Amino acid sequence: MHETNDAESTPSTVSRRDRGIAAYARIFALPERDVPAAFAELVGPEFAEEALQAAGGAGWWHPALTARDRSIAIITALTCQGVADKRLRTHVRLGMRHGLDQDALTALTALLAGYIGYPRASITMETIKDECAHTDNSVP
Description:
Helix content is about 70%, strand content about 0%. With about 140 residues, it is mainly alpha-helical. Helix 1 (about 15-30) packs across helix 3 (about 45-55), helix 5 (about 65-80) packs across helix 8 (about 120-135) and helix 7 runs antiparallel to helix 8.
């Protein structure tokens, strides 16, 4: 049986775009009404619309994945790609809100280092240490 995340479940009558807006509202800690304009300003209206549609799909809403599972997957993907900017920082903070404490994030990063290399993993570890220091994330 899969653990689901009821806080992220939405009725099937909600549009894919609206589910995407809800996902980005959680990621960026914005009110849903502000998401489309803020995201369009950040990446342009066409790209923003594509991203909202994508975030409303099964990847963000399938009940077989918990919010914590998604955070682990996204932090892993960003680390593997060498992403070290605010995107990684945002997802580390989101992971912390989804129950990943400093020990879990450190263990994840140590695991990744053996597979993707220490240079990229160390960039993520620096971000994790910095975020944990600024949020007192000893316990989620």
